[in-house]
Design goal:
Number of domains: 2
Oligomer: single chain
Order of helices and strands: EHEHEHEHEHEHEHEHEHEHEHEHH
Distance between the termini: 15 Å
CATH architecture of the largest domain: 3-Layer(aba) Sandwich
Strand content: 5-15%
Shape: elongated
């Protein structure tokens, strides 16, 4: 290994195709590590048409370590190339750092595609002790949890200085002027985040005369589950057909935060409880609106993440005990609106410096 490659880190990405949250995280992480050590990071684009075996071989050979944040892009589009890059890295005796955001909540077919990466990795970076425990309990792969280290997860999106208006924002603003409570949810819509559980809370708020309009700022994940059909089926059962909005994918951060400004409170009733890997919840906190979430399953969930603990301690994130009925969430939402948390500046760069230092120590 030459002096030029001694400290180089190769980040695997998908170029212009990286429009998902995982792809955005990879770009921000590479930038944050680069700020710590200018000239340390390089990138390799892997798509269905880019990233030949020869290109991967050369790029890996020019680096000391390879960083793979799975899935680098929508998992059904690019599966083999990242795994090939990790295999070549091991063959060339380069360090392999795998970033793994979740486990038990993944569909079993997706878990199957991740299996080679877990085996090839020298270090597995996770953001939640609960997720690490899920991997540790796997009957075949549990031993790979011994390679895990924890890092503090930052939000993917920085609140912009200016916002963009949109027809949906105007619709939400009109609803609020008419005395309706706008209940928000931000991020991808999939079973692991229990999106239909929020509908039961909205129904309870209707029974109390709060007239909630529930807005899902995000889109459904295309998977093998009938997520979208099941969601709208539950909407119809509860009689909320005219009181639920799904925005679909929004590319502009300024438009997202424009919508945030018309949300009264965000709510996430999570079966697993709040974990330190929920970046979308951290994004919502930046809006200054109350964020109500199910409490964590384990008391040590945030011990490695002091910034997240501070948000909970000052009430920016309000916790509801696991197993609570919809009425308990409704109670907490109403209480938070009557006594909202005091606004505090959000140090976005500081959050990213924290995770960059954690990853950098593994390179």
């Amino acid at each position: 290994m030459t002096a030029d490659t001694e400290h180089k880190a190769l980040f695997l990405g998908a170029g212009a195709e990286m429009q998902c949250g995982i792809g955005h995280f990879t770009r921000l992480l590479c930038d944050a590590v680069e700020k710590l050590h200018p000239g340390r990071c390089t990138t390799l684009t892997l798509t269905r048409s880019e990233g030949s075996v020869a290109e991967i071989w050369r790029a890996v050979g020019a680096a000391h370590s390879v960083v793979c944040n799975l899935p680098i892009v929508a998992w059904k589009r690019v599966i083999l190339r990242p795994l090939l890059a990790l295999l070549i890295a091991r063959l060339r005796r380069r360090r392999v750092v795998l970033i793994q955001h979740e486990w038990a909540s993944l569909h079993w077919l997706r878990q199957l595609t991740y299996l080679p990466a877990l085996l090839l990795a020298d270090t597995i970076v996770m953001f939640s002790p609960l997720v690490r425990g899920e991997l540790a309990s796997h009957p075949l792969l549990g031993w790979t949890a011994s390679k895990c280290v924890l890092a503090p997860l930052p939000p993917n999106i920085d609140a912009p200085s200016d916002i963009i208006d949109s027809p949906l924002r105007e619709q939400l603003a009109t609803a609020r002027k008419n005395g309706r409570l706008v209940l928000g949810y931000f991020g991808s819509i999939y079973p692991g985040k229990q999106p239909t559980a929020l509908l039961d809370i909205a129904a309870d708020l209707w029974d109390r005369g709060k007239k909630p309009l529930t807005v899902y700022i995000g889109s459904f994940i295309r998977a093998l589950d009938n997520v979208e059909q099941d969601f709208y089926g539950r909407v119809n059962e509860l009689g909320l057909t005219d009181d639920v909005i799904v925005s679909g994918y929004i590319a502009s951060d300024a438009e997202v935060f424009g919508l945030f400004g018309e949300v009264d409170a965000f709510c996430y009733p999570l079966d697993e409880g709040l974990t330190a890997r929920r970046s979308s919840i951290l994004t919502c906190v930046q809006s200054g609106r109350p964020v109500i979430v199910t409490g964590p399953a384990n008391a040590d969930e945030f011990d490695h993440h002091p910034r997240l603990k501070a948000l909970i301690d000052r009430g920016a994130i309000g916790l509801v005990p696991r197993g609570s009925p919809p009425q308990a969430y409704a109670d907490r939402i109403i209480a938070a609106l009557e006594s909202p948390p005091a606004p505090v500046p959000f140090d976005f760069d500081g959050w990213w410096q924290d995770v960059a230092r954690a990853i950098d120590s593994e390179l």
